[in-house]
Records
---
Amino acid sequence: MSSKEVGSDSAKACYEPFGVSGYAVAFRLTRSEPIDNKMLKEMSGNLMMRITARCIERGAKFIGHIKSYMKTKDGYLKADTIGLNKGAYVESSITEPVSQAYLVINSIVQGIDKSQVKIATLEASNEVLLNYGFNIEIEKEHEYFDKFDIPIQPKGEESKLKQEKSK
Amino acid sequence: MRIIQIAGFLGSGKTSAIISLARTMSGEFKKRVALVVNEIGEIPVDGKVVEEYGLRVKDLGGGCICCEIATSFTNTLVLLSQTFKPDFVLVEPTGVAIPNQVKLAALMAKRDCDIALGPAVVLFDATRPEELLFNDILGNIVIRQISDADVIAISKIDAVSDEQLVDCEQQVRKINQNARIMRISSVRGDGLGDLVKLITEPVEYPAYQIR
């Protein structure tokens, strides 16, 4: 068997035909006053739910996994959800109130393109994080997956386009 | 060096399971365990969470190890065998990876190091069986993952009733008649001891060849 058959680095990705889209973002968060573990847990749970809601509003048909990881000088917090009706699961070990944090969010859904996942994630993050008094700075971001990279033409449109081009 | 993958669809509880398994294997079972966590994105979440438990983890990002970055995965296995020399490598593929493809990618490392294929453990989320199996598009991935499983671990059993669990087992059994079916909860620890015993047994679980 050649290395191509087992999936070399140039092979087509396994997930491409399924319309799964993702967006990941890393934030630097700062706040004037320290905030405690209880509030951070509540905020993270709300954030997961709000991102989910925003993705559904934009047409997501299936929530794959929305998850986050927050690192602070006094511990970490992870949160995730697989849908509005499932609630958010939050696990935390932040021992002291903090005013600075590094937050990573990863949203993976199906049914909308990756630009919409990005907008939904950023809109929700702005709403929730600002509501808890955090200033937000994006450190890095990344869109991925997505069958929508290749425009899908409705039946008949393709030949119409070809005809127009040939004129 | 035995390669064991903890696979399963998005949100099925792979990261929680791999943490619990690795801790039990390295603690109670005194095994040398390395973890390889694959996320498609370049900004990891799962790998960071695993590191918080003091576990040694190699984060592979920027693509899927079953297809796009199979060669990077192979090279990682070779490097681990030469440097850390683990007894076991627990691999967490992405939630959309195809288990047999991951096995085939791992086998490429056999040219350069001594590896054995342990089982492909595929987690199946007991809290959303219909959503997963009957989704008109994504259902195909889930069914393929279950078909490829050597062990199907019905996960999150703490969150559902016994009737729901029986129903889940019946549904996955229809898809894969040969796999061992287990029940696990990473929250309560249910079934994890049995799963560790199973995956540490020196039994080879070969990949099948695609024609």
Note: The helical segments of chain A are 37-57, 114-131, 157-166.
---
Amino acid sequence: MSMISMRNVSKWYGPQFQVLKDCSVEVEKGEVIVVCGPSGSGKSTLIKTVNALETIQNGEIVVDGVTVNASKTNLPKLRARVGMVFQHFELFPHLSIIQNLCLGQEKVLGRGHDEAVAKAEALLKRVGLSAHAQKFPGQLSGGQQQRVAIARALVMDPVCMLFDEPTSALDPEMITEVLDVMVELAREGMTMMVVTHEMGFARKVAHRVVFMDQGEIVEDALKEDFFGTPRSERARNFLSKILSH
Amino acid sequence: MFSDFDFGVILRSLPYLFKEGMTFTLTLTAVATVGGVILGTLIAMIRLSSLPVLPKIAAGYVNVMRALPLVLVIFLFYFLMPYIGQWALRADQPIQVGALSSTIITFTLFEAAYFSEIMRAGIQSIPRGQVAAGYAIGLTYRQVMSYVVLPQAFRNMLPVIFTQTIVLFQDTSLVYVLSITDFLGAASKIAQRDGRLAEMYLFAAAVYFLISFTASMLVKRLQRRLAVAR
């Protein structure tokens, strides 16, 4: 059974504008999927439907056996098991780094404070930011904030991770430190769905690449096939633009 | 021009002015601020919610309160509250509401309208990504509000809340219409008893100015500190 299963997902903004057109993707346990495509192609919307930050009007999404778009689904419980990393980090600026990492553990998982702190410290160490536990998000660089955001998702022991353009708001010199953490995570066998333009990352760790354009999944191919011989004209076009420099 | 003035009257009445008058003024300011912020936050959350009907009622309440002069509201509540109480508690007679409880309730309800507008702006100033991040780690709506949105909204709005409190501190003097002894009321009573109107009102003005001005200076400093912290 797939970890994430999206079948014929459609979404409209208003009656006219269809952002997602009949999208189907399967992500197996331990698989890393990179979703790419031109801006406005619906890739961010697609990934946000997985933990129901965006609702859908048609189709079905199942995450680890739980139907996301069923009305009886306990969404907070589901979301706690799906880690998410945002483009703009979205750390809570009024809380220290350690408090950022403890909030979900204590309020959602009901862990005790000491247990939560221990777990938070372990993950901060893993992303190389132990020294910053008591600081506030505003005192860290973008790259550091994004690593904290990854740690904040990981403290919840998620079954899979969603990344929504995790490096596109970062200065070039900070992209590597974030990608390094993600590569390590991928190699440890985490199930990941990553919206990104970092084709280097895709080549290195992705199993499959999903290419979207105008709300449609144009191509869903093994990494080797996608970079070797993309079948569609649109994907070839996109690749030539993004890889030309 | 001050040759006929007797400033001794001020000295003699200090204990009365402050122990009776200022204590009441500060208590009313504090209670109405705390109550107004809590109630105002609730109203703001209702207005921003997608509940049926309730947001419209909340908006109506705020608009009515903001469109009426405070003195009028003080009067209206004082005269109407016994009947509202009677209706609410299904009692046989109008409920006795003293001038004191009446003013406290009035000021809280009145200020809630203003604080709700402040908190509404504060809540709306929090980026939607923050809310999404709260949901993403599994928080419920209530938890996102209490741990993510409201603390930030409150912190961002703190200088405005304090500024509104300073205005409220001055407005509490309107309780004179119900013959309650606040600071100005106390000064006014002494002034009329001893025929020392100019002295007492000048002194009262000096005290209001000193407190309000110092408070606004402190708010400005707070504002600068918050700007740095953000």
Note: The mean pLDDT of chain A is 94.
